[in-house]
Specification:
Length: 85
């Protein structure tokens, strides 16, 4: 159980490193979307291991709403012409 969580945390560090390294806003947004997805999957794994469905509901909400907010932010930035295609 602990080994799985340690591996998931190490996999979470990869997009954090990419977000800090790159100056391109689209790459940063992709990295943050990846972080949100990996975090929600970690929460779902923990909820299954603890047999706690309330934690699982939070993981599902993060998984469904986290990436939607990033896509909304991308559309707002595109419409404001802050970022060119």
């Amino acid at each position: 159980m602990n080994l799985i969580l340690i591996i998931m945390i190490l996999a979470l560090l990869i997009p954090i490193y990419e977000a800090c390294k790159d100056n391109d806003i689209w790459q940063k947004m992709l990295a943050f979307a990846s972080i949100a997805t990996k975090t929600s999957v970690m929460i779902l794994v923990i909820s299954v291991l603890r047999d706690d469905w309330m934690i699982g509901v939070v993981g599902v909400l993060i998984l469904s709403l986290g990436n939607a907010s990033l896509m909304l932010l991308a559309q707002i930035l595109k419409r404001m012409k802050i970022i060119e295609n």
